[in-house]
């Protein structure tokens, strides 16, 4: 199993939710976060990269999926929410060792 963590623009949340459901994700967790990437939170067109770090509001969505779903999900995330502009976001992927569905005590991918 893989944990897929997506940090992107707030307005991409609805598209991302629909995409995850299309990919048979059984659940997701969403938070509001603050962050910056390489431009340190400044607008690149304005060409004023400050000394300080400007944190911008973003959404962070994570889901845990079966390994076989990973490649198509990553490809679709880029296609569906990418704009080609700085600040589109980033996806981090982690291995997940175990899941417990508390109500049923199921474990592993059938517990997702
Ligand atoms: N290396 C990182 N570690 C942790 N979080 C990151 C990292 N890079 C980006 N993020 C998070 O992702 C958000 C969006 O990053 P962003 O898309 O601006 O990345 P970038 O590397 O600057 O790429 P781009 O040049 O396309 O803007 C950031 O606000 C931050 O919350
Ligand atoms: Mg950036």
Question: What is the CATH C level class, in words?
Answer: Alpha Beta
What oligomeric state best describes the polypeptide chains here? single chain
Strand adjacency order, main sheet: 2-3-1-4
- Biggest sheet features: 4 strands, antiparallel
Report how far the terminal alpha carbons are from each other. 9 Å
Shape descriptor: elongated
Number of helices: 2
> Structural class of the helix and strand makeup?
alpha+beta
Q: Low-confidence spans: pLDDT under 50, at least 5 residues?
A: none
Bound small molecules, which ones? Answer: adenosine-5'-triphosphate, magnesium ion
Proportion of residues in helical segments: 10-25%
Mean of residue pLDDT? 93
Q: Tell me the Rg in angstroms.
A: 16 Å
How would you characterize this protein structure?
With 112 residues, this protein is α+β, with helices and mostly antiparallel strands. It has a single domain (2-111), classed as Alpha-Beta Plaits (2-Layer Sandwich). It is built from two helices and six strands, in the order E-H-E-E-H-E-E-E. It has helices spanning 13-22, 70-81, and strands at residues 2-8, 29-35, 56-65, 89-95, 100-101, 106-107. The strands form two sheets. Strands 2-3-1-4 form a four-stranded antiparallel beta sheet, with helices on one face. Strands 5-6 form a two-stranded antiparallel sheet. Strand 5 (100-101) and strand 6 form a beta hairpin. Helix 1 packs antiparallel against helix 2 (70-81). The longest helix is centred in the C-terminal third of the chain and has 12 residues, at 70-81. It is elongated, with a radius of gyration of 16 Å. The termini are close together. Bound molecules: adenosine-5'-triphosphate and magnesium ion. Adenosine-5'-triphosphate is lined by residues 7, 35-39, 56, 58, 86-90.
């Amino acid at each position: 199993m893989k944990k897929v963590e997506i940090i992107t623009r707030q307005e991409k949340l609805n598209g991302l939710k629909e995409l995850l459901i299309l990919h048979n994700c059984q659940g997701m967790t969403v938070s509001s976060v603050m962050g910056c990437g390489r431009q340190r939170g400044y607008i690149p067109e304005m060409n004023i990269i400050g000394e300080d770090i400007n944190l911008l509001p973003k959404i962070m969505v994570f889901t845990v999926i079966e390994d076989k779903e990973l490649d198509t999900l990553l490809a679709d995330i880029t296609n569906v929410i990418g704009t080609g502009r700085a600040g589109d976001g980033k996806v981090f992927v982690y291995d997940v060792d175990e899941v417990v569905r508390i109500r049923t005590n199921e474990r592993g991918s059938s517990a997702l």
